Amino acid sequence: MAVAVALLVIVVGSVLFHLASPWWLTPLASHWQQMDNTLAITLAITGAFFVVINLFVAYTLIRHRHRPGRRAAYEPENHRLERWLIGITTVGIVALLAPGLVVYAEYVQPPRDALVVEVLGQQWQWRYRFPGAGGTLGRSDARFVSSANPFGLDPADPAAQDDLLVGANELHLPLGKPVKLLLRSLDVLHDFYVPPFRARMNMVPGMVTWFWFTPTTAGRFEALCAQLCGVGHPEMRGYVVVEDEAAFQAWLRAQPSFAVSVAPPGAAPGGSPVAQGLTLSRSKGCVACHTVDGSAAVGPTWRGLYGRTETFADGSNARVDEAFLNTEIRDPKARVAKGFAPVMPQIELSDAEREALVAYIRSLGGDGAPAPPQQQ
Ligand code: CUA
Question: Terminus of the chain with fewer CB atoms < 10 Å: N or C?
Fold first, then answer.
């Protein structure tokens, strides 16, 4: 009897919790109403089965509870009942799977006029590529990947020269226009996911995956990585800004083309070395693991790092100066600060870039170094 009551409480509690819960879907911001419908069908079917089965178990517990002098009848086979159960289960499973197959088939079948955008995932940042005036994305190959050419674009391909490259974690898209996203990864599995679009897909090293959607609401939506990809995974976030065509075109025009961004080779962005370092710390993904506000994250904070005496995992000490930082960036795993995991990737930087980064870290230090630039 107690078990039957517990089951009843669980059933009623689950239904009430579902109805009263504050955790509902975010408002839909793309045309994928079908995704929500599929989710609703799944919830209705699994919810109905959950309620019916638990109520049935509670009923049988009460109906057939132990009573003196009463014996259960033994019935080894009941073909009629089995046929019914197999039939109902089959209908239930087909109803769970079929809508998903239909929606998925559409999900990877973009309309011909869709705007093509490439998303490149890397530990732990996003990059984006748009075709230039030519309208086609240039060829890419793993052979060409370097710090100056993270997309691995073929310098000999004329179609690659005008490709527009977005090195920041923010992607802009025009409102109401279908978009086909091509997804690539430079290192491990990632997953580009924008919850309000109800759209996501794994990014698999060595292949190009894709899906499409039409943004239906202007706004700024968080994009996140939905595949555990290392210690920096929770920091792998970005934004998708949906805006009207004019604002989108203005933003797109401000993005550098491949031809501009690779020439002169290895050139650091403009401004003072410290300002260049600030820009690099973002574009190279350093800030995914190193804070500048003094709080420890995956790696040591840069606030007050310069000039400090650092202790290493092996117990040795060293003063953090320019020579130290240069060595550390070149070979991050040679010496690891005490209390941190040896996870820093070797990031390809030109000498000028590395020196700009060191100048920026120095500006956050405590040895009377120049003041850091204003945070934007
Ligand atoms: Cu990339 Cu998680």
Answer: C
